[in-house]
Write a structure and sequence with these properties.
The relative contact order is 0.10. The protein is 28% helix and 24% strand. Among the domains are: 92 residues, Nucleic acid-binding proteins (OB fold (Dihydrolipoamide Acetyltransferase, E2P), Beta Barrel), CATH 2.40.50; 122 residues, GAD-like domain (Gyrase A, domain 2, 2-Layer Sandwich). It is of the alpha+beta class. It is globular and about 95 Å long. It is built from 16 helices and 22 strands. Helix 13 packs antiparallel against helix 14.
């Protein structure tokens, strides 16, 4: 027997018991005639005691143990004289009577401690060792718990978990596919799914009216902190539903998870605002509504002032920073430098101070009288003591810069409380977006998103004005998930694909199986996909998903532990009927 108990369970109620523990040597301390070893497993740590006077041979054996040795120890549970309140097992220790070394360990390349001395790349190379550290282990267990609670809730609501294929057909829409060559069909390729979109629609046609899956997805795209080439979705679909049915169902999931995982109560219904409203008021389609500071459009108010920046700009907008009129010139210069960063792209910053005494100080005093500035502050609903920050330029770019400025001010003023959560739904996105480079429309979400019924008549005549019957869930400025009501009519789907540039032949080649399925009684249906990794990170208060994935890729998309991606042999290439053409390698 390797163990009667784990290393995190013993307490004073076990005094006098003979026990067997197995695990890794976490730390060893030699103090005169005594040796103390902290033995660690997944469940915790327990202190082992060896006495040179009563059992010198065993104590000498213990002193030869190195960090991360795997051992089995048998002994008696006794009460500790110097208790450790920071350990669940800190009231007891084990007087060891027999010791077996199950496996030796080389000295680890970094210290297996909460605060390690290993850098990111080193720890990723030895990820199996990094996973032994308490905070990393906690992240993986936390991920497991979120998955189990998700399954519990969806099962209680009548959803069925169904697996969909991993080797599928490549489609041209969306991000780049990862492709897999077929050995038995030379010259043909599978693709790894970017999502199970088509399959969950087919499941609705099959009559499984509530489907879900916690599923692995793959996208060959540039990486960042919240993106990996392989990621996990909570993928869901429902039949015989309209938009609000879907939002109500998954608002329930969100409320349940916040309570189950964080013991956080969300009592109010989630606000629902349109895409146009979100962009005009917050500058982004994923606004953080933990604080106000909405963007105000002052274009009409400031044009014709003689100030060329305002007069010649498509759009001028601003935000009100409450109580910041006392900002120094150094503070304002810092804000100007912030908005002029290349990733934000503003040309400069205009400010208006509404002083406590009712006077005004502005960087454009030359062009605006005190009466003009009072009218501006009234329009922006500013009060004495407030600071107005103004940007001007092309509308889309300026709104984006204002959204970043708003978040920066929210951070500076302590308005983005990490323990407060404010979800909302963004609805009525544009169905399509125009790309100047390719001179064609692309689906904002995917080609199977349904247009809003009242806009359907414009799908072919004025597609840029058509709104989608789609929605995103946003929490604290992070897009957690999104979905739509789907097209379930073959003729509308054909029109949609034509607008996207597909000929009838191409549409049939790519999506013929779905179009055919529509002819056999497709129900109205819709669904949503949540970024599971983002849910997990959000609940843990982290901005990166990588910490919650057992074996993640680095920022270059490489697994440095197993050295992947890697070259394959000529024999494998020949078997797959492939020949490499090396361009600039």
């Amino acid at each position: 027997m390797y163990r009667t108990h784990n290393c995190g369970v013993l307490n004073l109620s076990n005094r006098g018991e003979k026990v067997i523990l197995s695990g890794w040597v976490h730390k060893s301390r030699d103090l005169g005639g005594m040796t103390f070893i902290d033995l660690r497993d997944r469940y915790g740590k327990t202190q082992l005691v060896f006495n040179m006077e009563t059992n010198p041979e065993l104590c000498s054996k213990a002193r030869k143990l190195g960090r991360e040795y795997v051992i089995r120890a048998e002994g008696m549970v006794v009460e500790r004289s110097n208790k450790n309140p920071n350990m669940p097992t800190g009231d007891i220790e084990i007087i060891v009577e027999s010791l077996d070394v199950l496996n030796k360990s080389q000295l680890p390349p970094f210290t297996i401690e909460d605060d390690t001395d290993g850098g990111d790349e080193l720890r990723m190379k030895y990820r199996y060792l990094d996973l032994r550290r308490e905070p990393v282990k906690h992240n993986i267990i936390h991920r497991h718990r979120v998955a189990q609670e998700t399954r519990k809730y969806l099962d209680s609501q009548g959803f069925i978990e169904i697996e969909t294929p991993v080797l599928i057909k490549s489609t041209p829409e969306g991000a780049r596919d990862f492709v897999v060559p077929s050995r038995v069909h030379p010259g043909s390729f599978y693709a790894l799914p970017q999502s199970p979109q088509i399959f969950k629609q087919l499941l609705m046609i099959s009559g499984f009216d509530k489907y879900f899956q916690i599923v692995r997805c793959f996208r060959d795209e540039d990486l960042r902190a919240d993106r990996q080439p392989e990621f996990t979705q909570i993928d869901c679909e429902m039949s015989f539903v309209e938009r609000d049915d879907v939002l109500d169902a998954f608002e329930g999931l969100a409320v349940y998870l916040f309570k189950a995982i964080k013991n956080y109560d969300i009592k109010e219904s989630f606000p629902r605002i349109t895409y146009d409203q979100a962009v005009s008021e917050y500058g982004t389609d994923k606004p953080d509504i933990r604080f106000g500071m909405k963007i105000g459009d002052i274009t009409g108010k400031v044009k014709g002032s003689g100030f060329n920046v305002f007069d010649n700009s498509e759009y001028t907008g601003g935000i009100v920073a409450t109580g910041c009129a006392a900002y120094s010139r150094k503070d304002l210069d810092g804000m100007t430098d912030f908005v002029k960063r290349p990733q934000i792209g503003a040309g400069g910053l205009v400010y208006v101070k509404y002083n406590e005494d009712g006077s005004f100080k502005s960087s454009v005093d030359k062009f605006f009288s005190p009466e003009d500035l009072k009218g501006l502050t009234d329009l922006m609903d500013a009060r004495p003591g407030d600071l107005i920050l103004i940007l001007s330029g092309e509308r889309t770019q300026t709104l984006y810069a204002l959204s970043e400025l708003r978040l920066e001010m929210g951070d500076r003023l302590g308005l983005r409380d990490k323990e407060q959560f404010k979800p909302l739904w963004i609805v009525d996105f544009p169905l399509l977006e125009w790309d100047d480079e390719t001179q064609r429309y692309y689906a904002m979400h995917h080609p199977f998103t349904s247009p809003k019924t009242e806009d359907l008549h414009m799908l072919e005549s004025d597609p840029g004005k058509v709104r989608a019957n789609s929605y995103d869930l946003v929490i604290n400025g992070v897009e957690i998930g999104g979905g739509s009501i789907r097209i379930h009519d073959a003729e509308i789907q054909k029109k949609m694909l034509r607008v996207l540039g597909f000929t009838d032949e191409e549409a049939n080649s790519q999506f013929g199986f779905l179009m055919n399925a529509f002819r056999y009684g497709a129900p109205p249906h819709g669904g949503i996909a949540f970024g599971f990794d983002r849910w997990v990170a959000l609940f843990a208060g982290s901005e990166t998903i990588r910490d919650f994935i057992a074996f993640p890729k680095n920022n270059a998309g490489r697994d440095v532990m197993i050295d992947s991606p890697s070259k394959i042999s000529d024999d494998q290439l020949n078997e797959l009927n492939l020949q490499l053409i090396r361009k600039g390698i």
